[in-house]
Amino acid sequence: MPESLKDKTIRGVGWSFVDNIASSGITFLVGLVLARLLTPSEYGVMAIITILVAVSNSIIDSGFSNALIRKVRIERMDYNTVFYFNLLVSIVLYLTLFFASPAISSFFKEPILIEVVRVVGFVLIINALGLIPRTIFVRDINFKRQTKVSLISSICSGTVGIGMAVSGMGVWSLVGQQLSRQLLNTLFLWIYCHWRPIWEFSMQSFKELFDFGSKLLLSGLLDTIYKNIYYIIIGRFYTSAQLGQYTRAEQFNTIFSSNLTSIIQRVSYPVLSSIQENPERLREAYRQVIKITMLVTFACMLGLAAVAKPLIIILIGEKWVQAVYFLQIICFSGMLYPLHAINLNILQVKGRSDLFLKLEIIKKIIAICFIVIGILYGIECMLWGSVCTSFIAYFLNSYYSADLIHYPARKQIKDILPTFMVSSIVAAVMWGISFWSISLYILLPIQILVGILLTVFIYERLQLVEYLEVKQLVLFTLKRK
């Protein structure tokens, strides 16, 4: 990888990491405060809205963002065409949710959902307004400005949410936090971005982008529904309190798994797209991304599973103890999410959105079987089913990417197996420490310290290439700062 592209990638990874910390990290810390002020049932009500907003946002984007990022030569007309289409769709979807809110409330047996859905629905229009500025920054691998935006919006919205919770506004504090965060995020994206829409629309541009993006739209919808379907199943067949417990477990998992996936997708996609016409260089860059990503992912996710109990009890209290077991299971499926994302990125880089869609359909059919088992036998069975689905999905994802760049699953596994073994050994030691009969406030720091020291010690002895690369990236970034 040339130095210029490497520098750009390092900056992208660095700022994207800071961006996710500023966004999800601060939101997570605010969530710890809110979790002590609110009940699991109130979190459960808000979780029900999550899938509605997530699915609607996928429809609004329609795969256009990825289509714009991938396009080699972009025109002003392309941005304007996508902007007006996104805005129109967001308005239609908001009106749909507004009038469907009584039916949604009846389905989940939560009367307050009528008002909550109608208010939270404004997020759809707000997000649609910010899609093009955000896409422009991603296309340019410029995450520095997005980081500033995330920092401002996360801190301000967190203040709003905590203030409303302290005032006794219950679930509306979560609504206020989400609305203010998205509003500020979009507002500052517009302030920092020099692009402004003008009134023009090209049907030719629309058809060209939609031809690629439509398959990603359907794929994204399937994936979004699947990721959030547990909210529907648990919310419909169990109590809102149990849904709240699951939500908190998922939010702890998000700090590492989803954020790592997001960082890798946002940075690797434009970088790999820029070298898509050089197969050898693309494969080596792809292999390097996988090895480095999974070293970090395995360490974080298996370590999180090991410290789940003291971490949750210390941070949000005994009332969330049921979330401990949920989190430990979720960590095993979540550790493969970044690997899924990287393999699927290759399909997009190669322009094979048709294969992307085909894979999503196959994987979701398999997942339905485990979801049905969960309905019949309990939440834990459903979550273990998601672990099985995650492993099956990896081999399906890697099958086509292997054919496109000649990097099959067996070679991928051979490349990441050493880091998996190291992380498993370290996590086992950390988990064993959890049985010590000492205060949780002493236990947790000991587990974390032992985990870090043991990980560094083993990797320094092994001198794995990917570890040395991560070490070099960290030192290089610190030196630049």
**Biggest sheet descriptor:** none
The unreliable regions are none
Q: Estimate the strand proportion.
A: under 5%
Give the class from helix and strand content and strand pairing. mainly alpha
Q: Give the fraction of residues assigned to helices.
A: over 70%
The helix/strand series, from N terminus to C terminus, equals HHHHHHHHHHHHHHHHHHH
* Separation, N- and C-terminal Cα atoms: 22 Å
Morphology call:
globular
Q: Indicate the radius of gyration in whole angstroms.
A: 22 Å
Number of helices: 19
Number of E strands: 0
Question: What value does the average pLDDT take?
Answer: 77
Tell me what the structure shows.
The structure is a single chain. It is globular, with a radius of gyration of 22 Å. It contains 19 helices and no strands. It has helices at residues 3-37, 40-61, 64-70, 76-108, 113-120, 122-139, 144-166, 171-192, 203-237, 240-274, 279-306, 308-316, 322-334, 337-349, 353-377, 379-405, 409-433, 440-462, 465-480. The longest helix has 35 residues, at 3-37. Helices cover 87% and strands 0% of the residues. With 481 residues, the protein is an all-alpha fold.
